[in-house]
């Protein structure tokens, strides 16, 4: 590791040459019904599983914290955030 020129990820977020978001989407498996749900890493609300109403993660002010006994696949699915203005389907 060269201290004179650190890697871009280790620099401060505003001092990186190309800024990129640190948020991502991850697959979370429901502990009750074992179905996989895609959850945003910086969710601002409580994320519930639609079928069984199990709480998957809660907002903490920054990153969403996963509930205990909820397995996730963060490493396999780190998709960068792309903000989309879509109305929820009814």
Automatic annotation (TrEMBL):
GO BP annotation list: translation
Assigned GO CC terms: ribonucleoprotein complex; ribosome
Entries under SUPFAM superfamilies matching the protein: Zn-binding ribosomal proteins (SSF57829)
Gene3D superfamilies, per the entry: Zn-binding ribosomal proteins (2.20.25.100)
Keywords recorded for this protein, A-Z: Ribonucleoprotein, Ribosomal protein, Zinc
Domain of life: Eukaryota
One Pfam family matching this protein: Ribosomal_S27e
Alphabetized InterPro entries for the sequence: Ribosomal_eS27, Ribosomal_eS27_Zn-bd_dom_sf, Ribosomal_zn-bd
Names of the cofactor(s): Zn(2+)
Signal peptide coordinates: none
GO molecular function annotation: structural constituent of ribosome
Entry's family note: Belongs to the eukaryotic ribosomal protein eS27 family.
Name of protein: 40S ribosomal protein S27
Gene source species: Capra hircus
